[in-house]
Each structure stands twice: as structure tokens, then as C-alpha cells.
Amino acid sequence: MYFIYVFCQSAILVHIYIHALHLNVPPAGAAVIVSMYGVFQIAGMNVSGYLADRYSNKTVFFLSFILMTVSLIWLLVLARNTLTFYMFAIMMGFASGSIQILFSPIIAEIFGLKSQGVILGSVSFMASFGAASGSVIAGYIFDVSGGYTLAFIICAVLAASAVVDTSLVRPIAQEGKNVERAAK
Fold this sequence. Notes:
Layout: H1 2-22, H2 27-54, H3 57-77, H4 82-111, H5 116-145, H6 149-168
């Protein structure tokens, strides 16, 4: 799931400016898209942390992947002018911040705390391949096809698969101890 998140984030952040320019968004407006993404990523981190404490990490994580999927579909279908790109940036930035901040607690809930550092490090290492490949694959698709539609479809499908994956996540039993389920 983290691989999917960083793959999509990399593809979007590197290419959203060029995509917006190709849809006649003025350069200053296209630059603001990236800034808004960052601002709402920070908001997503703070709000989702509060919500996860109030409800559950898994619930907020799940809803964040739904928001990410919706934002990518929005990008494919509705983002055609400056305002609709700003709406995309708000949704995708918020979802991105939420996913990022909740990944460590989700790992702890699934696997426990005993080996959290090693597991989180391993998952982050594997996710770095997503970060490295997302922008390259999106760029290659643009070079071959002249547009980002296929790249953004891939991101939307991956995000939708993360929604399904998140819904199936359950903690593993730890050495005879009962582990509280991630979903309350």
C-alpha cells in the first residue's frame, strides 16, 4: 500500500505542473497547484492524526485511500481549468498527508511493536522503488503517448486496489497475545 502511495505521489508531483499547462492553466496557476498540494498535505497530517486517535487508524487510512482514488478520478475526468485543478490539489494533498502520517501506526497495529522498526524500514525501502518509478513511468507514458491519461489511470487503479487492500488488513497474532483489531 505504501508503494502505491509513493508511486502515485511521485507521478503526480513531478508531472502535474506540465499536465496543467497542457490544459491551458496559466503557469502561475499551475505552480499554485503544487503549493496547494503541500499545504493540504500538512492539513491532512494534522487532521488525520486527530481523527485516527478518535476513531481508528485503519478507518482513517481506508478513507484516505478512498479520497486519493476519488481525487485521481477527478483529475482524469474533471480537472480542466485552474479551479478544478485546485480542487484536485486539495483532495490529493489531504489524502497524501493522511496516508503518510498513518503508515507507521498501521504497521504497529498489524505487526505489533516488537519489530516495528525493522518492518517499517523494510516497507519504506520497498516503497522507495515506487517513488523512483512513479515519475519515470509517468514521464515515459507522456513521451510515448503525448499525454498523461494512461499514467493517471494507472495511479487511479493502484489507489483503488489500495482501498481494497486496506479493507482486508488484519493484525497478526503475537506470541499468544490477543491483538486488538485495527478496525474498531
